[in-house]
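Before anything else, study the sequence and fold tokens given here and see whether the fold suits the sequence. Record follows:
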Amino acid sequence: MFVPVLLLFVLLQDKPAAKPEAQQKPAQKPDVVVVDPTVPPSQEQEQAPPKEYFLDVVKAEKEIEVGNFHMKRHNWNAAATRFEEATRWNPKSAEAWLRLGEAREKTGETTKALEAYRKYLELLPHGKKARDVQKAISRLERDLKQ
């Protein structure tokens, strides 16, 4: 009999005291902004500040990982966006530039693919994929001339 009473006493001690109604905060409205896409934005609306990038190898690797996920699913635009983000977080990531070139080539953006491939060769001129990238650059340049 003593144990249940003691247990009840402990449970009641842990329970916070109820606040009086006068001290409770009124419910706040959520910050939701409804934008009509048919109306051009006015100059009065605030623009989001541009995203600041700094060297972050971990974020770059994560973006490459997600980009590879999209590449496997043939979602070229999403992959290209992720690889581009990776190049912003780590501009010296040769893998990010290579994968960006591959994704841009798949989307048909030949000039952007060439830029990415050239940047890869600038960073890693004797890498494992350098010969393949040279061939891709030659092929894309030939396609542009036609």
Notes: DSSP finds six helices and no strands in the chain. The chain has a mean pLDDT of 83.
